[in-house]
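Field notebook, page 315. I keep forgetting to write these up properly, so this time I am using the form the group agreed on. The chain and the ligand, zinc ion, are recorded exactly as supplied. Prediction of the bound pose follows.
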Amino acid sequence: MYPWLRRDWQTLLDVAHAGRLGHAWLLLGDDGLGKEQLADALAALHLCQHPTADGACGQCHACQLLDKSHHPDFNRIGREGKSIGVDPVREVCRRLNESAQLGLGKVLIVEQAERMTEAAANALLKTLEEPPGNSLIVLLTSQASRLLPTILSRCNKHHCLQPAEEVTLSWLQGQGIMATPSQVRLCQGAPLRVKAYLEEGSDAMRRTLLEAVVSLRREPTRLPEVASAMATDLEHTIPWLQLLINDVLKCQAGCGVSQLAMPDLDSQLHELAELCSCEQLLDSQRDLVALRERCQPGQLVNPSIHIQQWLSRWL
Ligand SMILES: [Zn+2]
């Protein structure tokens, strides 16, 4: 278990040992906190033939089958694809309605549950209303606001919180990854996101792209090239631009380097703080929020043009 999840696990274990686990749980928290590990531990506890005070025994036939991904009463959906459609949900609900092959209980884990289509959510709702036999349904989400209120109201909820910065830094160090506090802040304090971010080399790309954005004031002809580079990965680049503007506003307000999300761009941030008015920055920030809303997957036909418009307006 990840060190920052141990307290969450103990809380859930206490509920289970008190016999109050019920049939449905919603685990909430940012991506990159490892909520999946908690869901797996709950599943293992529910299916284990000889559960212990710490959770599943890890030794019994059920635990071994689960470990090899061969447990017939365990179901998981939501890891792949852009959305979770009604067909896979109907199929797992049908399986939950059959009797448990090992006779102990059944489990369904729905990862990234906010990606369920409305039809899929409604199909799941029927099962959540009348959970068959000894079944446990665990939903995971980072965006509870995108779930149907009727789904939310039928689940017990547990919020996973981001760990303290020192916990993340020391865990990363144990993984052989030397991260800086600013890299942790850039990934909203989620340890697994920091790990992926650094392993993908995204931090170097962030620096290069944002340096290019700042240089547009001096080299406006680079606008199409910079816009097209930003448009290739809007999921990352728009939040970077938002942090950039926030940091420039902080510089204007006289904040020190330690209060910036991106202290490594200190000189560029101060350059923009000198050049831009506060109103201009606030307008840009507002436009960026609107652009981010429109950039949900599949909604924007030509993101490069939109990002170019945004860049040209505030430069
Ligand atoms: Zn076991």
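OBSERVATIONS:
- Strands lie at 24-28, 74-77, 106-110, 135-141, 156-159.
- The two ends are 47 Å apart (CA to CA).
FOLLOW-UP: compare against the apo run.
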